[in-house]
Design a protein that fits this description.
The protein is mostly helical and 474 residues long. It folds into two domains: 36-262, no CATH class; 276-474, no CATH class. It is 85% helix and 0% strand. The chain is built from 18 helices and no strands. It has helices spanning 2-25, 36-92, 101-114, 118-146, 152-156, 161-164, 167-184, 186-193, 197-201, 204-221, 224-251, 264-299, 301-325, 328-338, 341-377, 386-412, 414-439, 442-473. Helix 2 packs antiparallel against helix 13 (301-325), helix 3 (101-114) packs antiparallel against helix 4 and helix 4 (118-146) packs across helix 12 (264-299). The two termini are 43 Å apart.
Length: 474
């Protein structure tokens, strides 16, 4: 009995110390980074700040459409609103247009930061910016050439020439804002690389307020679809420019992109890393979106809804995991460059434990109460089966572990990650087709589970090998 009490007291003492340490990390003042302990605390402080502000930004992003959608739908009408959504989907499908250069920059700049090499960081930023600028100008030129030949009415399903009116101009405005954001996106990438992603999230309230004001102004002045698109997309551009002015004008003026700092070696590394990230992104999109296509082709459109609604509930947890892990990715790169492998190993273990706790507990809740929640949410129109909820819970757990390991490997072995993503996407597609034919809607989920698990095993082996090798060298 005394031994049990002693163990209990020791456990409580450890948890109290951890809570106290966690509270000490929540501060605005940075830690002293001249020693390993200070650098570790500073990484955790920045990660907490980035995660916290990112959650607030996501909440604002969810609330804002509740105001703008009724306003814009009422102003535009159903047809023009549908046209706007179509324009948005077409343009945003160009999300891979930066060729992964943005993500490649994060790794490259984080590594330069870890080596305290300002010159190398300047070369990466300048080379990356002008690469992105070149991509944006190339896409703009291609659009200018194709403008006259595009089948506008067929693209938007509008039969009469009079009905589509300003649609080409609206597309041009939307695309212009999108293309401007390609090179300006370097601002967010630089902040993320320096583990200051929270600075981007802090601009979210201003962007939302500016967008609401501009939308109201456009509706009052009756500036039409093009004006509305400019108000919403332009507010993002203006806030991004303001963030860039603060970054390159006050925070880190020495990083201001300059043509004289472009280096072939820096551009080559960024493009190489970017290519790997592009492969990962494409494989992830194919692997995820193919599930809807598989279900639609095999079971019909009605079955897609039976899958789409429950998975939206489960992806809430995935979004929380992404918020938690995103700030850790550049911190891994910086710590590896400094040789702080003890921090890397400890952080990876903590992220795995936290990820398992989050996904297992949430998965259990969704399996037990998910059916009732979804039935009430949809007014009884969607009633997911227990096996589908169970499969999604397992998928969430496997995905959580994969995300933790993938974040580490994205900073240490991006080539392996790219190859794994392609293999997982291919396996997922084949397994999903076979299993959906055999067991129904849940087949696509079990296909994803098997595909991710098969890829996760060598990922865990490689992670262990990298950490062991680093410990031996240290």
């Amino acid at each position: 009995m005394l031994r049990f009490i002693a163990c209990f007291l020791v456990t409580c003492s450890v948890h109290v110390q951890r809570i106290s340490r966690f509270r000490n990390l929540i501060r605005l003042e940075p830690f002293d980074t001249s020693n390993e302990v200070g650098r570790a605390d500073e990484r955790h402080r920045r990660a907490l700040l980035s995660s916290g502000t990112s959650i607030i930004a996501r909440i604002i992003a969810l609330i804002t459409p509740l105001i703008t959608i009724p306003l814009t739908l009422s102003y535009l009408g159903a047809q023009q609103y549908g046209v706007w959504m179509t324009i948005s989907s077409i343009v945003t499908s160009l999300g891979f247009a930066d060729l992964g250069i943005g993500n490649g920059l994060v790794n490259a700049i984080s590594e330069a930061h870890g080596k305290d090499n300002r010159q190398l960081a300047k070369e990466y930023v300048s080379s990356g910016f002008f690469l992105l600028l070149g991509i944006a100008l190339t896409l703009a030129a291609a659009y200018a050439i194709a403008y006259r030949f595009l089948p506008w009415r067929k693209m938007f399903g509008i039969p009469s020439p009079q009905a589509f009116g300003e649609i080409p101009h609206a597309v041009t405005v939307f695309l212009a804002c999108f293309l401007v954001c390609i090179p300006l996106g370097i601002v967010d990438r630089v902040l993320l690389a320096y583990q200051e992603g929270f600075r981007t999230s802090l601009w979210a309230p201003l962007e939302s307020l500016l967008m609401l004001f501009l939308v109201y102004f456009v509706i009052k002045q009756d500036l039409g679809l093009s004006g509305l698109i400019l108000a919403i997309s332009g507010s993002s551009v203006l806030v991004l420019i303001a963030n860039g002015v603060f970054l390159f004008g006050f925070s880190r003026p020495w990083l201001l992109p300059q043509p004289a700092l472009i280096r072939k070696s820096a551009a080559g590394k960024i493009l190489k890393l970017g290519f790997m990230y592009s492969l990962m992104q494409v494989a992830t999109v194919i692997g995820y979106n193919s599930d809807y296509i598989v279900i639609s082709q095999i079971l019909g459109a009605k079955a897609v809804a039976e899958y789409a609604v429950p998975i939206k509930m489960f992806t809430i947890v995935g979004s929380l995991m992404l918020i938690m892990l995103s700030p850790i990715w550049p911190a891994y790169s910086e710590a590896m460059a400094r040789g702080d492998w003890a921090w890397v190993q400890a952080t990876l273990k903590r992220s795995l434990v936290a990820g398992l706790c989050i996904t297992i507990s949430s998965g259990a809740v969704f399996v037990v109460f998910g059916g009732t929640m979804i039935a009430r949410w949809t007014g009884g129109r969607i009633l997911p089966s227990t096996i589908l909820l169970f499969a999604l819970a397992i998928w969430g757990i496997v995905g959580g572990v994969s995300a933790c390991v993938g974040t580490f490997l994205a900073a240490s072995s991006i080539r392996f990650q790219a190859i794994s993503a392609i293999a997982a996407a291919a396996a997922n597609l084949l397994l999903s087709i076979y299993l959906t034919k055999s067991i129904g809607v849940s087949g696509v989920v079990f296909g994803s589970i098997i595909a991710q698990s098969v890829v996760l095993i060598p990922g865990l082996v490689l992670t262990r090998r990298i950490l062991r090798s680093a410990s031996t060298c240290a």
